[in-house]
Write the structure tokens for this entry.
Amino acid sequence: MEFKETKVNGVYLIEPKVYADQRGYFMEAFKQSEFYEHVGRVDFIQDNESKSSKGVLRGLHYQKGAFSQSKLVRVIVGTVVDVAVDIRRSSPTFGQYVMVELSAENKRQLFIPRGMAHGFLVLSNEAVFTYKVDNPYSPQSEAGIRWNDPALNIQWPVEGLDVLTSEKDFKLPFLKDAELFD
């Protein structure tokens, strides 16, 4: 695997080695020893999966306090544009974001450390999105930031798409009003 640190502190783009032939392909999706060597120790405890249709935008989500989560995300069907926003006030990249296309075809993964808001937009007819987390879901710790916050100026590729988001995501606060990390 190739680990590339992005412009946002602690976020890594991971590109696996894919061995393809007439039968199909093989790849290591996760190898703990390599992950620890390049990113550091993160003890993932749970895998999650969601299926969404074209134009669905999920996010920008995070968990606060003791239940904050690191995530290792990838797409196994379809294509999404994935976004991680640094919401750690003490970080030199506070308020900056990384946007990466993740797809079943490119097999890329994105590691998102604690202290980030995360979301994705589905570009294909459908997408199956899977991710590892290092802390369980805690409803009382759930938080988020509005996906279209003008202060973040995220350049979502929404032109020509009917964006569909949940009512809860539509009502998320803007960055200036959100509960953030120190």
Summary: Residues 75 and 129 are 5 Å apart (CA to CA). The helical segments are 32-38, 167-170. The two ends are 32 Å apart (CA to CA).
